Amino acid sequence: MNTDKNLQDDWAPCPAGTLTGLKRRLHRTRRAERAWRLAAQASVLLVVVAAVWVFTQTGGGRGTAEYDFGGITCTEVHKLLPRYMQGDVEATTAEKIKLHLAECPRCQELVRQMGPQLMPQTSASRPAGACPHCGMSPPGWSLAQLEMRVAALLLR
């Protein structure tokens, strides 16, 4: 059995343009594969850039977000919170802190942990005769009586 002779008998020449068409199809397929590879690489790069951006916006992995609610950051609120609680900040700053505390879950938790006794003490919120520093008033004593007793103690 002669296999070469059988192959030659089965062989038929390609019609004109068949090889050119196959070549074009192969080039189109390769171009499409390259485009998909580039699209995949661009997608991965985009995801990495987005992840880095989110990472830096949420505190850089420190687990603490630095929010800017009310025009003031968490760090600034933490620094000013004791003075704010005593009513010892400017009205514009107090308003910014108030707006920040209304929106920031992290700072709300901090205030909750500090306790309800640290609510802002302004002259309008203090009862008449209360100490201007701590907001407390001894039972039955007016501020004038308290000042006289302290003065008497100091003069002894």
Short description:
The protein has 156 residues and is mainly alpha-helical.
Specify the oligomeric state: single chain
Shape: rod-shaped
Query: How large, in whole angstroms, is the Cα Rg?
Result: 39 Å
Portion in beta strands: under 5%
Distance from N terminus to C terminus (CA atoms, Å) equals: 135 Å
Structural class: mainly alpha
Kindly state the percentage of residues in helix. Answer: 55-70%
How many alpha or pi helices? 6
- What is the count of β-strands? 0
Report the sheet with the most strands, covering strand number, pairing sense and barrel closure: none
Contiguous uncertain segments of 5+ residues: none
Task: Please write the string of helix (H) and strand (E) elements.
Answer: HHHHHH
Mean pLDDT: 77
Write the layout of secondary structure elements.
Blueprint (H helix, E strand, L loop, with lengths): L2 H8 L7 H40 L16 H12 L5 H13 L1 H10 L28 H13 L1
Helix pairs in contact: 4-5
